Amino acid sequence: MVTSTSLVYLIALPLFGSAILLLAGRRSDKWGHLLATALSASSFGVGLYQLSQMLARPTEERAITQKLFSWINVGTFNVDAGLLLDQLSICFVLLITGVGTLIHIYSISYMSHDENRRRFFAFLNLFIAAMLLLVLGDSYLNLYVGWEGVGLASYLLIGFWNQKPAYATASKKAFVMNRVGDMGLSFAIMIAFATLGTVSFSGVQEASHTASKAALTGIGIMLLVAATGKSAQFPLQAWLGDAMAGPTPVSALIHAATMVTAGVYLIVRSNFIFDAAPTAQLLVVIVGAITLMFGALVGTAKDDIKKALAASTMSQIGYMVLGAGLGPAGYAFAIMHLLTHGFFKAGMFLGAGSVMHGMNDQVDMRRYGALRKFMPITFATFGLGYLAIIGVPPFAGFYSKDAIIETAFNAGGVKGILLGSTALLGAAITAFYMTRVMVLTFTSKERWEDDQHPHESPLLMWLPMAILAIGSVTTGFLFTRGHALVNWLAPVVGEHAEDEKVLLQPVVVSALALLAVVIGVAIAIRKYQLSDVEKVAPQNVSFFTRIARKDLMQDSFNEAVFMKPGQTLTALLVQGDEKVVDGAVRGVGTMALGAGSALRKTQTGFARSYAALILIGAIVLIAGIWVVTQ
């Protein structure tokens, strides 16, 4: 591992842009968006330069570090503010800055009529900087700073249009639920320090070889809690659908390509902990499997195009978490699906924004239809992302998702059959609900209102969509050619573990996955393309559709299990405080006031009263002396 002095520019450039735009205020309205975009692109350029430098070095010297300053130095606890760029973090750096720059370009046009566009770009730059710190930090404590930074930026961007109460509530919900997950990361850091004496990645990895299994299991479970919050995984997934309240570019950047994948990064980065803690690793697999099905089922009933894509994101990250939970056999495939997903899902979110732009901000897909004739570029780019996410060869998702399904089947025994079957069923449901989105939006009959006039988006919007669509087509093949990504990540996540007992050969898995896709697509076409799609009254839909539209009652569950008991406990504590603590304080005060009132009666202001008291006192004193002297 060698040192470098240029990593800081990756973070400093967008951070500088955010500071300039926020401090300059309205004076930067005319050029702020251009500065923010240029600095994001510059950070991407630095990332490409670092990649070229990394490729020029031998494999064992590709990881580089940079110490910024000594941060904490208390007794034996020493933490430097340092950066680490290795084969894993460079993947995220290029994804964050590359896709982030495309979304900046898209936003120039998308947000052109918003009077607060400059502030929006300041928040985008702030997010880019925080996300880069998250993936470049060389310790869990440094990562934690970026982790909280992206939480703040997400809150600001989701609630960007906070003049609408529902949007402000959505941003608060996302912020609070993420804080619940963040407590897990806090506890993981505390356990690591208390039991291992270090919080750096290298230090924890070295100490993990001699640490107790209980300590590693505790750290692993707490890291998983953190991942479920940030990556919208079960049981902390309820915030993601509401996060669609933010402008569509926010959904593409934060809630598709980058921030919601931070939990996957955390798990893969901590591979040495989970490999040594089988219980925690099993919980990762269970969470991923539950979430991929949960998101898929919710996606089947959503009529809001952005919320349908949000449910899809939840499900696809479930695949990534499942892959990461499969250990050395799945780490690289989890990252592969993360990267391919960053292209096709960001492209589809931007496509959804393009549709909204052409449909007067309408988000209900039941009010779309036949838009392929009016928005051919959006249809083509969105369609390529659609083919990628459902896993049609040779598009990106075919390579990455099938690899996870295959690894799940080959996990061994009943576990492998259950996980593989779950992943395969999820693929079929994905094909169904994504075909539903395509049909309702682009290929079914026209259903829009008379005042809507669909039209194609301008160049600055469709060009980023086109570039992302190219990634949807090519990245899967590029990552798997010669096991390129698996070999690239091996120094960080360990050598790829080949399955000892292969339950299903790759060709069989691919055939089953394609069959699942065909079944899902066929059902969706029959249900939505070959029959009339009209607005169905809520009372006429099926029971499953009703609960799926309500996100499988996740909010009702949280309210019943956590919120209402919490409110009751809070009310009891308030009453206890008022009646016990405040009551005791008031009692002391009442006693003092009573004593003062009684004593005040002796102070009449009359000389005769005082003379009488003096006489009585003298008699008592004399009587006391007489008694004592007898």
From TrEMBL:
Keyword Transmembrane helix listed: yes
Main subcellular localisation: membrane
One CC-aspect GO term: membrane
Subcellular location per the Swiss-Prot or TrEMBL entry: Membrane
GO molecular function: NADH dehydrogenase (ubiquinone) activity; NADH dehydrogenase activity
Domain NADH:quinone oxidoreductase/Mrp antiporter transmembrane: residue ranges: 139-423
Transmembrane regions: 6-24, 31-51, 87-108, 120-137, 183-204, 210-229, 250-268, 280-301, 374-396, 416-439, 459-482, 502-525, 610-629
Pfam families registered for this protein in UniProt: Proton_antipo_M (PF00361), Proton_antipo_N (PF00662)
Domain NADH-Ubiquinone oxidoreductase (complex I) chain 5 N-terminal: 71-121
Coiled coil found in the keyword field: no
PANTHER family assigned to the protein according to its UniProt record, in alphabetical order: NADH-UBIQUINONE OXIDOREDUCTASE CHAIN 5 (PTHR42829:SF2)
Protein name, per record: Unannotated protein
Organism ancestry: unclassified sequences, metagenomes, ecological metagenomes
